[in-house]
Amino acid sequence: MNTDIVVIGGGAAGLTAGLVLARARHRVTLIDDQTYRNATVDEFHGFPTRDATSPNRFRADAMHELSSYGVAFVESTVTSVDAVGGIVRVELNNDTAITASAMLLATGVQDDLPRIEGLEPRWGKSVFNCPFCDGWEQRDRPVVVIDAGPGADHLATMLRSWTPDVTIVDADDVATLTGHGTTLDHVVLRDGTTTPATAAFVKAPVIPRSSFARQAGCALDAAGYVITDDNGATSHPLVWAAGDLRRPPPAPHQVVLAAADGSTAAIAMHKSLTAQNFDATQSKTIASGQPADTDPGSHP
Ligand SMILES: Cc1cc2nc3c(=O)[nH]c(=O)nc-3n(C[C@H](O)[C@H](O)[C@H](O)COP(=O)(O)OP(=O)(O)OC[C@H]3O[C@@H](n4cnc5c(N)ncnc54)[C@H](O)[C@@H]3O)c2cc1C
């Protein structure tokens, strides 16, 4: 399968980039395997007109819009990429491959959550990571910060803007989270202490999903985030990146910011690709024997 631009990742970043690129009349193929960061969240917040929208609804609506511009969707897992000789090649786990002139990486990050009984089923329901995303719903309620990585004190301090009732605990000290279904009512420590809480906020390491950037030879920072310029251009001329995976701390991770990133990268890609095409057109016109071509050897 050949396309102009292949987008890996169908979150806010990849979907927005796909929309902008398709409307700029590029053939876009978008690959996604539905392993997005906020997959367990019932509603995300902070995006005007989409506040309190389910991530599934957001994606379905976006895919409907992109389809109307001819974007091809492939639901599959990318297993490897390479970008040599002016061509990007993307291998999928269904034994097919896609080739393209350029690639946008929008694969996001993953949260390296502590292994605590009762945490995983509550992730995105009553256990969160970001007060700007989910603090409002917990205003003036008792919350616990679970310290599983650097920055937990800062998170607890920030949360006190939403509620004065904040308790911070070390992840290693937590035995279990209890509550009906996916709600939370108590955090139980190994020493038997029980702390009432309607939500827990976890400070845990975040791991960029940047293996394809590494395979393509793009520069990464020490934590694995893709290094780009302000427009998402990586160190590889055919590869751009957008969304969480190019936003190292302290840059916030938000749906609206990932979408903005996708739009910025798409416009930069369009400019870069059309500049190349423009150069090619110029060469062809001159090489086709116009009078200005006094030195044929100067044009391939
Ligand atoms: C619990 C929680 C709650 C949150 N709540 C909010 C909120 O209320 N408001 C807000 O603004 N933000 C919220 N966020 C943050 C928000 O989810 C992220 O900032 C946003 O999803 C980033 O978008 P993205 O496009 O960069 O990455 P993602 O949304 O993670 O999308 C990346 C995509 O890449 C695809 N992918 C990755 N690897 C492969 C592969 N090998 N092959 C194929 N596809 C692949 C995945 O399937 C995924 O769809 C929350 C995050 C969490 C964890």
Main sheet specs: 5 strands, parallel
Q: What's the CATH superfamily of the largest domain, by name?
A: FAD/NAD(P)-binding domain
Amino-to-carboxy terminus distance: 29 Å
Total DSSP E strands: 17
Structural class: alpha/beta
SSE string, helices as H and strands as E: EHEHEEEEEEEHEHEEEEEEHEH
List of distinct ligands in this structure? flavin-adenine dinucleotide
How many domains comprise the coordinates?
2
- Mind telling me the C-alpha Rg? 23 Å
Look at the structure and give the CATH class of the largest domain. Alpha Beta
Count, helices: 6
Low-confidence stretches: 284-300
| Strand percent estimate | 15-25%
Helicity level: 25-40%
- What spatial form do the alpha-carbon principal axes imply? elongated
| Biggest β-sheet: strands ordered side by side in the sheet | 3-2-1-7-17
CATH architecture title of the largest domain: 3-Layer(bba) Sandwich
CATH topology of the largest domain: FAD/NAD(P)-binding domain
Give the assembly state of these chains.
Answer: single chain
Q: Overall mean pLDDT score?
A: 93
Short description:
This protein has 300 residues and is an alpha/beta fold. It contains six helices and 17 strands.
Care to describe what's here?
There is one protein chain. With 300 residues, this protein is an alpha/beta fold. It has two domains: 5-111 and 206-287, FAD/NAD(P)-binding domain; 120-203, 3-Layer(bba) Sandwich (FAD/NAD(P)-binding domain), CATH 3.50.50.60. Helix content is 25%, strand content 24%. The protein contains six helices and 17 strands. A hairpin with a 4-residue loop joins β5 (87-92) and β6 (97-100). α1 runs parallel beside α2. Mean pLDDT is 93; it is low at 284-300. Flavin-adenine dinucleotide is lined by residues 8-14, 31-38, 41, 44-47, 77-78, 106-108, 111, 124, 128-130, 133, 209, 243-244, 253-256, 258. Flavin-adenine dinucleotide binds next to α1, β2 and α6.
